[in-house]
Design goal:
This protein has 3 helices and 10 strands, in the order αββαβββββαβββ. The protein has helices spanning about 1-75, 90-95, 170-180; strands spanning about 75-80, 85, 100, 105, 110, 130-140, 155-165, 200, 215-225, 250-260.
Amino acid sequence: MSTQAKTLEQLITELHATNGELVTANNELTSTVVDKMGTIDAALTNAQAGVNTAISTADSRISQAILNLAQSHADMRINYYDRKVHTKDTLVQDNALVADPNDESKSIWVRVPNGGDWSGFHTYPAANKMTKLHTVAGYSYSPGYSESPVQYARDWSRTYMQFILTNSEASSEQINENIASQGVDINTSLTGGWWNGSSVRDIPSMQISGLHVYSSLFVRLVNVVSDGVSEPGDKQPQNIIQFGGSCNFAIDRVVNYPRIPA
């Protein structure tokens, strides 16, 4: 009996010891879990703070970007024009337009007629920045289309207009030289269509060193082989004054955006 009772007491003692160990282990585990949860909560709090900071920074940058965009489009240098229709014939008669001595399929550059002093045709535009030409009209056609009995037998050219915003004092030679030296893509300004309507198009803005920065709109006429010619072969654009039809244009304004790259 005593041996069995002692053994039972031993078992009970061992059970109590084991239970104490389990309690201790459970307490340690609980403490570890609590510590980990605290660490996780702190990490989540820091992460949320980081997210909030990132959102706030992004909102600030977006707001600044919107403000910059608005300011860039609000900052304009505008040349105003008289909206009157000008033709190849009137440019020849009133503005001394002649064929370019180096290429008779093009005219020299001439200043676009304007409303006179104090009409707002002078500005200080920024070179190589986005510049928009607002036309009231820009018409061209192929006179050879109406030839009979064979179309385009005599006149296979069509006259278009090209525009550039540059120094008012510039000569045609200086403009051509600067276009070549700066690699200006003047073809982006090609204007003219078989319709009666307004348009807005990109044109180059350029500055010539050594000249007063006052700038105006210049135009030249260029002949191309009409796209109506079914067999152009070796045909070349013809003399700008004698062929290609009498195109016309009317200008409302030129808008230069000094904060926006071309």
